[in-house]
Fold:
Amino acid sequence: MTDYLRKEPQTSSMKARVEQQLGRASRSPIGAWFRDIDRVLLLIALLLIAIGLVAVAAASPASAERYSDASHHIPPMFYFWRQVLWVTLSIPVMLVVSMLPIKAARRLAIVGAAAFLVMLAAVPFIGVEVNGAHRWLGVGIAQFQPSEFLKPFFIVTIAWILSFRAKDEHLPVTVITLGMTAIVGVLLMLQPDFGQTMVFGLVWLILVLLSGVSPKMLALLGVMGLGGVVAAYFFYGTARARIDSFLFPDAAGNAADTYQMDMAHDVLTAGGITGRGPGAGTVKFRLPEAHTDYIFAVVGEEFGLIACAVIAILFFALVTRVFVRLLDEQDAFRVLAAAGLASQFGVQAMINIAVNIGIAPSKGMTLPFISYGGSSMIALSIGMGLLLAFTRRNPYLSRSSYKTGWKA
Structure:
């Protein structure tokens, strides 16, 4: 009893110190950040990262066995330990970016968008080829995918340009951002990367709709989008092959193209509702890209469809949380930037899950925070850090104190 009484004041004082450092009374930068940050959004991001580590651990043996050969043996947990390294680097990056003031975060995004757009333009000429695609720059462990880093920076830059509509509705911001997105789309198609092109295009469309667009312009954008899909089918061989294999899987020559989708369906449903258990999956060993594009299917085999539903719900909760938090936000730039970044996570997750369950053709799209990948994890953490920065809210500022009308 005496020892307990001696420890209780120490525990109380420790608790008081934590409250003093992070509580409302704290004037330190970290205390201010902890007050202003959306802790629910941060928790969702950390949960997705934690689930991703478990998923990569489940998929790592299958991918290690597939990519090992007589001259090069890959340890079963190789990809898992590499992912642990990337997560260890990425979480501090996310937290540091989330602490940036709004103006600093915007400047970072604009400069980053310009720099990685130049790198993206260089990929078709000096990029590293992997599985027939030129999407990476660098050598060895220093390889990175410029399009992954460009996404969050480009989205914030587009949001900044569109936010000027609040000052002058006659500014041609829609045309300007359409041209910028088209340039990125052309550069991506040269790699080729049809999946990333869809992400950029869909997020741009969401931002344009949120910024306000006339019915005539909306109809024109619909026609242009349909025309782009038709043009891709007739003039872009990769897109035509994947669309044909998806729509006509039984046609001659298409059976081989549907192997990944068929295997993903088999792996996804092999575990039933509750899964076979951690490490007990066997069908995953026949699945290509088990640790990246088709990791959602591996989760289904080992942890069941319930676990897959949890992942989908978390992404839905992330997007919903952001849009609900923006309901009373009056700064046009912050609304568009945060909505665009949240849409990026939602669109990319939706495309990956759709491919894994067989309702969309294969696109080589990873599942955010879940799939293995170094540059992808760091780029996603930068995007999440920007999202946390733009959704920060002063707890002492009441809703009634906001000025009416958007301000750019």
The two ends are 62 Å apart (CA to CA). The longest strand covers residues 133-136. The chain has a mean pLDDT of 83. Strands lie at 128-130, 133-136.
